[in-house]
Amino acid sequence: MDTVPGNAKITDMKERYRSGVLKYVQMGYWVPDYEPKDTDILAVFRITPQDGVDPEEAAAAVAGESSTATWTVVWTDRLTDSEYYRAKAYRVDPVPGSPGQYFAYIAYDLDLFEEGSIANLTASIIGNVFGFKPLKALRLEDMRISPHYLKTFQGPATGIVVERERMNNFGRPLLGATMKPKLGLSGRNYGRVVYEALKGGLDFTKDDENINSQPFMHWRDRYLYCMEGVNKAMAETGEVKGTYLNVTAGTMEEMYARAEFARDLGSIVIMIDLVIGYTAIQSMAKWCRANDMILHLHRAGHGTYTRQKSHGISFRVIAKWMRMAGVDHIHAGTVVGKLEGDPSVISGIYDTCREGFVKKDLTHGIFFDQPWASLKQMMPVASGGIHAGQMHQLLTYLGEDVILQFGGGTIGHPDGIQAGATANRVALEVIVKARNEGRDIWNEGPQILAEAARWCRPLRAALDTWKDVTFNYASTDTVDFVATPTAS
Amino acid sequence: MKVTQGQFSFLPDLTDAEISKQVEYALDKGYAVAIEYTQDPHPRNAYWSMWGNPMFDLRDPAGVMQELKACRTEHGDEYIKILAFDSKKGWESVRLSFIVNRPKFEPGFELVRQETVGRQIRYTLRSHTTFRAPAPDAGF
């Protein structure tokens, strides 16, 4: 489609703005000597150009299509400071071990984005460009959000520290469980599961992503019975307990109505699904800040675009956007459970949730230093196919500020739900205690758990039931990294 | 009933040697260790009585254990917990918290249900201990 030969930026303005089609590098979207400003938003994409398209041209095209460009020259560029508004592709590196793929670095000026709007940010960064024909595939790997832009976002409604203070719960991971079966229980039976799990030793129970208000259980009925379970368990343990009441619904008005009812019943936490969309998430985060409510996010739907390395969005970036949007809890992987999760990738995601400053670390998929400008911390949630016998691995991989959710691993216990919860709580406490005592929990973990199982029957039964359960499949989302990547 | 707040309430009561190891962990992290006691372990009772200020300048677990012993002498039939405060920017709150002493009898809580509009219930947790006239100098 070339009409003008050459691969350099055209500086002669008359030639540059002659009607017709230019390469994106010629239009000025490839600026290899560009020094990103502290205020810039940076993105790194994994690009797979079509055959015959140079990586630089493909990178420039991504910069163009995610900022100011269209497919042809337009004279109206000359009415603006178009140089300033153009996103600038400034670096392209081949992806180690993946011929035909490149990491393309692009810088966006702060003025390209509306303050405090994930919708606006993403309309540019992942708007048109993912369907763009000159690319076979495109994946947003990581972003650097400048502190200037971060400060226009509320951030987590509550944050890890305040959540712990409200829960009166320090120094150990929190424990949760998703109610099962996901669908079909009546409100009264559902509340029973909540009560048993909390009474047995969990801190939280949780609605699942698709439990909203169906014919077998309307939302008000669920909320009423759940709060009976929560309060009864609190009275019998002296601990603060909560249950994530899913307020996901078809309209914002309905979600607000459900959230208000949850608040009026004394719930400390509500829940939303990622599928409600970025703007709805930001609205609920504002509501939660205003109503002293913890906001739990289930990442329903993310696997459609985060899992394959060649195309989509890395979950690191989704986690980053969600911390900006203002959620308090986010499902972020378990490493050892049934769902996708390479240890290095998970480590990068957990840092993104919890740290005040995340240092560039290509081994964890972190391409840029990311200062968080004192936005609150987001609690990662590990959920899916985990059980008490893995407690030493979970604490080692995931650390202390995490919610470990054992759904099947609580409710499926042979001696009942309370016993299942107790097994998890005892396993957790004994491993935390051993870690603090300086013991090598990674290697001694199974022995520490076995010792506790001698005096704790529920733990013994849990270990016997699930001792051999592992999910050793290769991860599809891994980090592509060699010690010294070459810059092109 | 057994109040199960804190990090280790599901385990057998910690021995003094075990408590000392946890204190050592906290001190190694640079946290300030504190001792608090109460007769009212309501889950939302945020302010137990302080057995002095957090021990900011104390770096030896033996010193903490000595304070714990003294606290037990005066409040042996109450709840006593050990906490560790982290003053690091971005945290500035409690890092550890576990119960190290309990009354011989734990009276627990009453769940008061007040039925209101619709089918809603307003729940109140009342500590059984707070119904009684507190003993002089009790840690409420």
Quick description:
The complex is a heterodimer of chains A (488) and B (140). With 488 residues, chain A is an alpha/beta fold.
Mean pLDDT of chain A: 94
Strand content of chain B: 25-35%
Strand order of the largest sheet of chain A: 5-6-7-8-9-11-14-15
Name the pair of protein chains with the most residues at their interface, and give those residue counts.
A-B, 38 and 41 residues
Radius of gyration of chain A: 25 Å
Structural class of the helices, strands and pairings of chain A? alpha/beta
Number of strand segments of chain A: 15
Query: Helix coverage percent of residues of chain A?
Result: 25-40%
pLDDT < 50 stretches of chain A: none
Structure characterization notes:
Chain A is an alpha/beta fold and 488 residues long. Helix content of chain A is 38%, strand content 15%. Chain A has helices spanning 13-16, 24-27, 55-65, 82-85, 118-125, 147-150, 160-167, 187-200, 219-237, 252-264, 278-290, 303-306, 315-325, 343-354, 391-398, 408-411, 417-436, 441-455, 457-466; strands at residues 41-49, 88-94, 102-108, 135-144, 174-178, 204-206, 242-246, 269-273, 294-298, 312-313, 329-331, 357-358, 370-371, 379-383, 403-405. In chain A, helix 9 links the parallel strand 6 and strand 7. In chain A, helix 15 (391-398) packs across helix 18 (441-455). The radius of gyration of chain A is 25 Å and the shape is elongated. Chain B starts with 15 loop residues before the first helix and ends in a 13-residue tail after the last strand. In chain B, helix 1 packs across helix 2 (61-75). In chain B, the strands form two sheets. Chain B has a four-stranded antiparallel beta sheet. A two-stranded antiparallel ribbon of chain B has the order 5-6. By secondary structure, chain B is of the alpha+beta class. The A-B interface holds A 161, 164-165, 168, 170-172, 201, 224, 227-228, 231-232, 234-240, 264-266, 356, 374, 377, 422, 425-426, 429-430, 432-433, 436-438, 452, 455 and B 1, 3-5, 7-12, 18, 21-22, 25, 41-44, 46, 83-84, 89-98, 108-111, 119-123, 125.
